[in-house]
Amino acid sequence: MLNKNILFIGDEKGIIRKWKIEEDNLKLISKEEKAHNKYIFTLLNIGNGYIASGSSDNTIKIWKI
Protein backbone atom coordinates (compact mmCIF):
# COMPACT_ATOMS: atom_id res chain seq x y z
CA MET A 1 0.00 0.00 0.00
CA LEU A 2 1.23 3.45 -0.85
CA ASN A 3 -1.00 5.03 1.75
CA LYS A 4 -4.35 4.16 3.33
CA ASN A 5 -6.20 4.85 0.04
CA ILE A 6 -3.83 3.62 -2.71
CA LEU A 7 -2.87 -0.01 -3.33
CA PHE A 8 -0.46 -1.45 -5.92
CA ILE A 9 -0.74 -5.08 -7.01
CA GLY A 10 1.64 -7.01 -9.26
CA ASP A 11 0.55 -10.25 -10.91
CA GLU A 12 1.84 -13.43 -12.55
CA LYS A 13 1.68 -11.84 -16.02
CA GLY A 14 3.98 -8.95 -15.09
CA ILE A 15 1.23 -6.34 -14.84
CA ILE A 16 1.15 -3.70 -12.08
CA ARG A 17 -2.25 -2.28 -11.20
CA LYS A 18 -2.90 0.84 -9.13
CA TRP A 19 -6.14 0.78 -7.12
CA LYS A 20 -7.95 3.41 -5.08
CA ILE A 21 -9.71 2.18 -1.97
CA GLU A 22 -13.15 3.80 -1.63
CA GLU A 23 -14.99 2.58 1.47
CA ASP A 24 -15.63 -1.13 0.75
CA ASN A 25 -14.72 -0.98 -2.96
CA LEU A 26 -11.60 -0.92 -5.10
CA LYS A 27 -11.45 1.34 -8.16
CA LEU A 28 -8.81 0.65 -10.82
CA ILE A 29 -6.85 3.84 -11.47
CA SER A 30 -4.21 2.60 -13.90
CA LYS A 31 -2.21 -0.41 -15.01
CA GLU A 32 1.23 -0.94 -16.45
CA GLU A 33 0.75 -3.77 -18.98
CA LYS A 34 4.41 -4.54 -19.69
CA ALA A 35 5.94 -3.84 -16.32
CA HIS A 36 7.79 -7.18 -16.37
CA ASN A 37 7.94 -10.30 -18.55
CA LYS A 38 7.20 -12.71 -15.71
CA TYR A 39 5.67 -12.93 -12.23
CA ILE A 40 6.02 -9.82 -10.05
CA PHE A 41 6.87 -11.03 -6.58
CA THR A 42 7.50 -7.77 -4.75
CA LEU A 43 6.51 -4.10 -4.76
CA LEU A 44 8.12 -1.62 -2.40
CA ASN A 45 7.34 2.02 -1.66
CA ILE A 46 10.81 3.59 -1.72
CA GLY A 47 9.54 7.11 -1.01
CA ASN A 48 9.61 10.45 -2.80
CA GLY A 49 6.92 9.28 -5.25
CA TYR A 50 8.62 6.06 -6.39
CA ILE A 51 8.01 2.34 -6.05
CA ALA A 52 10.31 -0.57 -6.92
CA SER A 53 9.12 -3.83 -8.46
CA GLY A 54 10.96 -7.15 -8.49
CA SER A 55 10.18 -10.00 -10.84
CA SER A 56 11.08 -13.58 -11.65
CA ASP A 57 12.42 -12.20 -14.95
CA ASN A 58 15.48 -11.26 -12.81
CA THR A 59 14.91 -7.50 -13.00
CA ILE A 60 14.14 -4.74 -10.54
CA LYS A 61 12.49 -1.62 -11.92
CA ILE A 62 11.84 1.80 -10.39
CA TRP A 63 8.53 3.55 -11.16
CA LYS A 64 7.43 7.16 -10.72
CA ILE A 65 3.95 7.09 -9.22
Spatially, the strands of the biggest sheet line up as 1-2-3
Q: Please give the radius of gyration in angstroms.
A: 12 Å
> What global shape is seen?
globular
Low-confidence stretches: none
The secondary-structure element order is EEEEEE
Mean pLDDT: 93
Main pleated-sheet profile: 3 strands, antiparallel
How would you name the oligomeric state of the polypeptide chains in this document?
A: single chain
Features of the shown structure:
single chain, 65 residues, mainly beta, three-stranded antiparallel beta sheet, globular, 6 strands
Task: Give the SSE map.
Layout lengths: L5 E5 L5 E7 L2 E8 L7 E8 L2 E6 L4 E5 L1
Describe the 3D structure:
The chain has 65 residues and is mainly β. The protein has one domain. 0% of the residues lie in helices and 60% in strands. The protein contains no helices and six strands. The protein has strands at 6-10, 16-22, 25-32, 40-47, 50-55, 60-64. The strands form two sheets. The chain has a three-stranded antiparallel sheet with strand order 1-2-3, with no helix packed on it. Strands 4-5-6 form a three-stranded antiparallel sheet, with no helix packed on it. Strand 1 (6-10) and strand 2 form a beta hairpin. It starts with 5 loop residues before the first strand and ends with a strand. The model has no long low-confidence stretch (mean pLDDT 93).
Task: Compose a concise summary of this entry.
With 65 residues, this protein is mainly β. Helix content is 0%, strand content 60%.
